[in-house]
Design a protein that fits this description.
heterodimer; A: 483 residues; mainly alpha; two-stranded antiparallel ribbon; B: 770 residues
Chain lengths: 483, 770
């Protein structure tokens, strides 16, 4: 590769360079800063700054019309840029949510923000992957960082168990994915998505086989049922800010990757993979809705909620159209906002004696903390897709895409399960608004967490005004894939 | 003022309600009532701009890509609804200010919700775009949830709140489905345009689905059989909310939307027949239930269900007569029923007595309320010179002209009218004018003017329209009828009753109502009462919710297995199924591949070794032996590579295998391993089945794939390029050190790092021992 060509390639990956160099630099810096807590605090601040800087570069300084780098392995288009911006900001929010929690739980270590940065770098590569190698590289970088984050509270038996489970299953799914990728490479003769797309027009049994493995591996990453089983354990066992991170950025990145893999290289095989995504969608919606009904732990409940929500996104994806692409993108964005806020609320559930995470601990929240209760109401109902909150539009367009593609029955099933899921959100809200408080009041959440809950809470209503703007963004982003 | 402003002003007032209430104290009610009053007057001022048959349309582009626009529409019918919403809204706000006079915090919260509700209502009836309409529609459901559960210390209230939301929001979902299919069929979400192209839509195959879904949505909202049970339970709400939401406005939304659809689809059997059937059934059920109810508000609630059913039925009656009767009854009912609820609220508030049977003799203690409820009740009973009389007259006309449905209509109309009269008598006479059955009723406070004047205003309005019908009918009611009917409706309204058969029937109904009042005590004390209550209450709802609960339990039991082994088994099992599914259709390939495979004895030896390794790994009692077993499998794989012309891969495999075993053992030896409670694989059939299944699936896949022609592009390229470009004779070497030089460097680095780690492990171990 010649010098100018290399420079041209590097100019496309400036956000990734910022994250990669930044992560290495912070890892070194962390070792030399005296005092564990100071190091954690400084590195965390620097990591946030890097993430915001990277997001800024992705949004404002991206080259017009995008381009490809490293012989097509890295794709920069409106689709990946959109995903990157959301992923970076979601990671920054996770860091904001984490700071105070980690300090009070004596988990503040500078490796935490560095791991978040590395995971985010992995996601950034994932959403820009233009061939199977880049896909795997990004996915593994992300996963390895996440394995450690899941078990970050290594003195806790539950956290270690959750981390181990996640690691073993994750390794298994990576193995499946890799096996599938090598089959695809073998039968398409190339790892590059464009060439695979050509081969997919006349799919051989090898490609179909490879596709099944690849989709299974990716389904694990988005925690779609029946590959979802790690989710409740990890959400419950991992430190809450880690769960907040798990529920937001990686979900979006993996879904974006899934969209690209299914729509670009395997676009011509939609008939085959639609069957898989439909089954995954129905199972996820069902398990998400029914599994959540009897949960008593709010974090486990959020896990089931996220499983269900992946199901709704998959309903849209099953439509395999351009409208489906942007509908899922919008859905995931709104979901990330809602979940980030909801975890902010969960992080505010702290009594004098420590964190609590049972749903019944929320009883009477509307009396002790009306603002928080109101924000939680908006956030939960928005995640549930209640009309007049912004999450409704995510669901509406996802179902609409499915109906347009002739999958009316799937949309009907989705509607039924979302009615059930609204029921369990309402049961929480019933506790929040109508039940008498039990136990002590929550102590004041730190300003950082309070700001996140307020801002996202207001966003569930306020973003309604911005839906047209968001739509133009996602439609532009979606046109890069579906068109 | 364009329609959107009504919604915006109402919305802003809801936001500022709580702080204003805090500042204004006891005067908050009248002060905040200025907002709906202002909207009411502004709406009245729209009348001259809105001649019969016209509509003010306003459209704000919103999501052009999907044809969703903020479309508003103000025509005669939505104007009528808006007037009811803001007019009664004004009175409700005043009333609620007084109702919550003891608790400033509750008052602010309540007024905020009421005004928010008013916003949602205005939005629903002013929306032309169906998506917009739906959003506001669901907003009314949610606000209703908070208002029903307002007295949250009451378990019944909490349950009722959840129930009403589950029913109405669930129905809303059906409505949304109907709207989406309708929008896709029509290519637009605008109600105006959809009505215009109704005949084309009716020929679409999706038409039945649309109608059924919309009907479900409307029936849940307007509490029609089989979804009628939530409304009486919703009476747990504070009375001002009951008066406003569950009688005068929200529950009429279903009727509103049905009437809107009736304009376009009224002539289709699939649309109007369910209205008549389900409306009629609901009327009979509620008429029966009302005579069995004992609570003051329960009586009013069941009679409201009955009235809603009447409206649904009248929407279904084809032609002019139905529209006339529907509008007339709608307005009359809104006025008198809200007044009766207001009066009930005053009585309950001042006596703390919810049971109608225990009330009596309050006419001197609550004089204004007594007069107000008397006025309202007379209108409800259908006495001449009151608005209610004209409404009943139109109702009977529609029923008698009902064509092929005439018999059914007449029966339900007569039955329900008689019961209505009785309810009117009960609600007005029993608490105020009859002797209290169990001694004098204790009064906790005197009449509040804020709670007495609103019902009086409504009662007087009913009388005024009855005596002087022209202004109201000509400027509001008849334009509303015309807007619905699609062409101008001519109707002469006189104050005096026209004598004839219908007049006689009206008198007969009054008499039968009076008789029912007379026997009421005996009726509701009937021992079957309890049974009746259960039958007509929420049996079905309870069953569905119980089923859901059980489904949740079963799912939880199935899903919370928590063991990693099970997780892996499921993951692999599902992948196996997917693979087998993908392989269906390729069985011929597999057979031909198997047949084409030459028998090679040395391969058999290698395979036997592999199997032995696998068996050792699976059945060994100690982890260390298991690892060695896995190692054997790895080595035999390397041999397979070696024998199939890939010596480089084979040697890599040998190295990796050796290294990983060494590392694993090094790690394991450092841990103090307790012997794990290993179970023989044979005792775990699931594990055996899953691993065998996965292996078989992959094996079959490889078999099927081996039929495919070998893609020679890569090997040809490297074969040529190795010599021509890299001047090497050994292709493998050239690939490793030239074409893939960077990869090789990376691999070396990985191996080096791994070695470092191993070294660190082993060194510490040595130190420890030393």
């Amino acid at each position: 590769m010649t010098g100018p060509a290399l420079l041209a390639d590097l100019s496309l990956i400036i956000p990734e360079l910022i994250l990669a160099v930044g992560a290495m630099g912070l890892l070194l810096a962390g070792v030399f800063i005296k005092g564990e807590e100071t190091a954690a605090r400084l590195v965390s601040l620097a990591a946030m700054a890097l993430l915001i800087l990277a997001a800024g570069v992705a949004v404002f300084l991206a080259p017009q019309g995008g381009g490809t780098a490293f012989f097509g392995a890295f794709v920069l288009d409106s689709f990946s840029l959109y995903a990157k911006a959301v992923v970076y900001l979601a990671a920054a929010i996770a860091l904001v949510l984490a700071g105070h929690y980690l300090r009070t739980e004596r988990l503040a270590r500078f490796e935490f923000p560095v791991l978040i940065l590395l995971a985010t770098l992995g996601m950034s590569v994932m959403v820009s992957a233009g061939d199977l190698i880049a896909l795997y590289l990004g996915l593994e970088l992300q996963s390895l960082a996440l394995y450690i984050l899941a078990a970050f509270n290594r003195d806790s038996l539950r956290a270690s168990e959750a981390g181990l489970k996640y690691f073993v299953l994750g390794a298994l799914s990576s193995g499946l994915l890799l096996y599938g990728a090598s089959l695809v490479y073998g039968f398409a003769g190339s790892t590059e998505f464009g060439a695979i797309a050509l081969a997919a027009e006349n799919p051989s049994v090898g490609l179909v086989f490879g596709l099944v493995f690849v989709v299974s591996g990716l389904a694990f990453k988005i925690s779609a049922a029946p590959f979802h089983m790690w989710t409740p354990d990890v959400y419950e066992g991992a430190p809450t800010p880690v769960a907040a991170f798990f529920a937001t950025a990686p979900k979006l990145a993996a879904m974006v990757l899934l969209i690209r893999v299914l729509m670009e290289p395997f676009g011509a095989m939609a008939d085959q993979w639609q069957q898989i995504t439909i089954i995954l969608a129905i199972l996820s919606m069902g398990i998400g809705a029914l599994g959540a009904l009897l949960q008593t732990n709010i974090k486990r409940l959020m896990a089931y909620s996220s499983i269900g929500n992946m199901g709704y996104a998959l309903v849209g994806l099953s439509a395999a159209s351009e409208a489906a692409v942007w509908a899922v993108l919008l859905y995931m964005t709104l979901y990330v906002i809602g979940v980030a806020g909801a975890f902010g609320v969960i992080l505010s559930m702290r009594r004098a004696e420590g964190m609590v995470e049972r749903i019944e601990d929320l009883a009477g929240l509307s009396k002790s903390r009306p603002g928080l209760a109101l924000a939680f109401t908006g956030l939960l109902l928005s995640i549930g897709g209640m009309p007049f909150l912004v999450g409704f539009f995510g669901k509406l367009f996802v179902f609409y895409a499915a109906v347009q593609a002739g999958l009316v029955w799937l949309a009907v099933i989705g509607g039924l399960f979302s009615a059930i899921s609204i029921a369990y959100y309402l049961m929480i809200l019933k506790r929040v608004w109508f039940d008498e408080p039990t136990g002590g009041e929550f102590i004041n959440p730190p300003a950082s967490v309070a700001i996140i809950t307020r801002v996202t809470g207001i966003a569930t209503v306020g973003l309604l005004l911005l839906v047209p703007f968001m739509l133009t963004r996602v439609i532009e982003a979606g046109s890069a894939i579906g068109g | 003022m364009s329609p959107v402003w009504f919604v915006i002003i109402a919305g802003v007032s809801a936001l500022i309600a709580a702080p204003v209430t805090r500042a204004a104290g006891r005067f908050a009610g009248p002060l905040l009532a200025l907002v709906p009053a202002f909207l009411f007057v502004s709406l009245l001022m729209q009348l001259p701009d809105l001649p019969v048959g016209t509509a003010i349309l306003q459209s704000i582009e919103w999501v052009p890509a999907y044809g969703v626009s903020l479309g508003f529409r103000l025509d005669g019918f939505s104007l009528l609804f808006s007037l009811l919403i803001t007019g009664i809204g004004t009175l409700v706000v005043i009333y609620a200010g007084s109702y919550f006079s003891d608790d400033a915090k509750d008052r602010g919260r309540f007024l905020g919700f009421i005004l928010l509700f008013m916003t949602a209502m205005l939005g629903t009836v002013l929306a032309d775009d169906l998506i917009m309409l739906f959003i506001f529609w669901e907003m009314t459901s949610l606000v209703s949830f908070f208002l029903i559960g307002f007295k949250h210390e009451d378990a019944k209230a909490r349950k009722a709140a959840l129930q009403s939301l589950v029913v109405t929001a669930g129905g809303g979902l059906a409505l949304l489905g109907g709207i989406i299919i309708l929008g896709l069929t029509a290519g637009t979400f605008s109600l105006t345009e959809i009505t215009a192209q109704a005949p084309q839509i009716a020929t679409s195959p999706a038409f039945p689905a649309i109608i059924v879904l919309v009907l479900i949505g409307c029936f849940t909202k307007s509490a029609q059989f089989p979804f009628h049970f939530w409304l009486p339970n919703a009476m747990a709400a504070p009375t001002p909310a009951s008066a406003y939401l569950h009688s005068a406005t929200m529950v009429k939304l279903g009727v509103y939307l049905l009437a809107r659809f009736d304009t376009g689809f009224g002539e289709y059997l699939i649309f109007y027949a369910p209205l008549m059937i389900f409306g009629g059934i609901t009327m009979l059920i509620s008429a029966y239930a009302v005579m069995r109810s004992t609570g003051f508000k329960a009586v009013l609630a069941w009679s409201t269900v009955c009235s809603l059913a009447t409206l649904v039925l009248l929407v279904g009656v084809p032609g002019e007569a139905g529209v006339k009767a529907m509008i007339g009854f709608l307005v009359a009912h809104a006025l008198y029923k809200a007044a009766l609820f207001f009066a009930a609220g005053q009585v309950i508030h001042s006596t703390h007595q919810y049971e109608l049977a225990r009330l009596g003799g309050l006419r001197f203690k609550l004089p204004i309320t007594a007069i107000a409820s008397l006025l309202a009740a007379i209108s409800m009973a259908g006495v001449p010179f009151f608005l209610g009389y004209k409404a009943k007259d139109l109702f009977l006309t529609a029923a008698f002209d009902g064509g092929s449905w005439g018999m059914w209509l007449t029966v339900v109309a007569l039955a329900s009218s008689a019961v209505m009269t009785a309810v009117a008598g009960l609600a007005a006479l029993k608490p105020f004018f009859l002797k209290p059955p169990y001694g004098e009723v204790k009064l906790y406070h005197n009449e509040y003017y804020g709670m007495a004047l609103p019902p009086l205003a409504l009662g007087l309005l009913g009388l005024a329209i009855g005596v002087m019908p022209a202004p109201a009918w000509n400027s509001v009611l008849i334009p509303a009828m015309s807007a619905l009917y699609g062409s101008t409706i001519a109707l002469e309204v006189h104050a005096a009753p026209s004598l004839g058969l219908k007049f006689l029937i009206t008198l007969a109904l009054l008499a039968s109502g009076a008789a029912l009042v007379w026997f009421w005590n005996r009726l509701y004390r009937d021992p079957d009462n309890v049974k009746a209550n259960v039958v007509f209450a929420d049996l079905g709802y309870g069953a569905v919710m119980g089923w859901l609960d059980r489904a949740g339990q079963v799912t939880a039991r199935l899903l919370q297995m928590l063991s990693l082994r099970t997780y892996i088994a499921v993951t692999l099992g599902v992948s196996t199924l997917a693979l087998l599914l993908a392989l269906t259709g390729f069985s011929a390939d597999m057979i031909s591949a198997a047949a084409a495979e030459p028998v090679r004895p040395y391969m058999a030896v290698v395979l036997v070794l592999t199997l032995i390794g696998a068996a050792v790994a699976a059945f060994a009692r100690s982890v260390l032996i298991s690892i060695l077993g896995v190692g054997i499998v790895g080595y035999t794989m390397a041999v397979v590579f070696l024998l199939n012309g890939a010596p480089d891969v084979a040697f890599t495999q040998f190295t990796v295998e050796t290294l990983s075993i060494v590392i694993l053992l090094a790690v394991l030896l450092r841990l103090s391993l307790k012997p794990a409670p290993q179970q023989s694989l044979l005792k775990r059939p699931l594990a055996l089945a899953v691993s065998a299944g996965f292996g078989i699936a992959v094996g079959l896949g490889v078999l099927a794939m081996s039929v495919l022609p070998f893609d020679r592009r890569l090997s040809d390229f490297f074969g040529e390029a190795s010599y021509l470009e890299a001047q090497g004779h050994n292709v493998v070497n050239v690939i490793l050190v030239d074409f893939r030089a960077l990869d090789t460097l990376g691999e070396i680095a990985v191996v080096a790092f791994a070695t470092l780690c191993v070294w660190a492990l082993l060194r510490r171990r040595v130190k420890k021992e030393g």
